[in-house]
Amino acid sequence: MKKVFLSLAAVAVLTVVSCKKADAAAETPAEEVIDSAAMTIDSANQVIDSATQVIDSAATAVEDATK
């Protein structure tokens, strides 16, 4: 009976370890997609900031030219 119990415990441990590895592998691509999307958003924000600076500079130049 002791051997049966130890065998079942060993199977349970291996099952838990195997499931945790499968979950970790499944989460990795999703995390990479999220990181990639975050980097894209950061890049877009930088472009928007640059465009805003150009527009502000152009507006200042137009105001100076009309004075």
Structure description:
This protein is mostly helical and 67 residues long. Helix content is 97%, strand content 0%. It contains 1 helix and no strands.
Q: Radius of gyration, rounded?
A: 29 Å
How many β-strand stretches?
0
| Tally of helical segments | 1
Order of helices and strands: H
> What is the strand content?
under 5%
Low-pLDDT windows of residues:
none
What distance lies between the first and last C-alpha atoms, to the nearest angstrom?
Answer: 98 Å
Overall geometry comes to: rod-shaped
The main β sheet shows up as: none
Helix content: over 70%
Compute the average pLDDT.
78
**Which class do the helix and strand fractions yield?**
mainly alpha
Topology:
Layout: H1 2-66
